[in-house]
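The data are passed on as follows:
___
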Amino acid sequence: MIRIQGLAKSFVGQDGRTVEALRDVDLDVGAHEFLTVLGPSGCGKTTLLKAVAGLVPWDDGDILVDGVPVRGPGPDRSVVFQNFALLPWATVLGNVAFGLRMRGVGRAEREERARALIAAVGLAGFESKLPGELSGGMQQRVGIARALAVRPRVLLMDEPFGAVDEQTRRLLQEELLAIWEEHRPTVVFVTHSLEEAVLLGDRVVLMSARPGRIADIVPVDLPRPRPTDVAALGRTGRYAEITGYLWDRLRAMHAEHRPALSRRAGAAS
C-alpha cells in the first residue's frame, strides 16, 4: 500500500544550521493496516507523515502509494492534525462536507455522508454549531469525520489526541477504533504515547533520535477487534510486555543521545 524507500530530509534551522531530520528511512505499510509511529521528540515523526501526505518535499528517496509516486497531496490521502484545522466560519456540517464539496459531490449526497459520519463520531445534534462553540475533543471529532468523509484509502494522523484531556483521549481512541473497524482505511498514526501506540496499532514503528531512522518495528499481537474498553486491554500481560519493551528501547535511545548532545554543545562553545 505505502512504500517508503531511502527517504532523507534536511532543513535549515532558525540559527542557519542545517538540520538532518530523516536519514535512509525504509518502511512498508500494508493495506488496511493501523500503523503507529513512536519516537523521541524531534526525531522526524511529523516530517515523515507530512512527506507521505505530500505536504513537504524531501531530498532523496521515494514514497509510493499503490505503486504511484507521491508528488503532492492527493485524494487518496487525508490528514488529521493535532490543532484541529477547522474552518472557523463553517458549521460542523459544513466542515465535514467541505472536502466533498471541493470534489464536486452534490449537496444531497455530501450532506447525507457528512451527517452519517457526524453521528458516527458522537456529534449528532451539533450539525449547526460552529467550531468555537465546541470543546477540543468535539472539534477533533469533527476533524476525524471530515477526513473520513472523502473516503480516503490512507488516513494520516499527527498526534490527533495530544491536545485533549485524558478522559476525552480514551473516548476518542475507542471511537477511532470502532470507525476503523467499519471503514478499514490504512492508518499511519504518530504519537508520543507508548500506551496509545500499543492500544491502537497492528505494529509500532520506533524511530531513532535525530536524524530519524527506523530503529525497530514491533508487532502488536493483541486481538482484533480491540475491546470496546481500551483501558481493559491495558491491563493485560501481553500489553505490559510490549509497552515495557518499547520503553526500554526509548530509554536507551535517550541515554545514547545525551552524550551526543553534550559533545555538540561543547563543540559549539
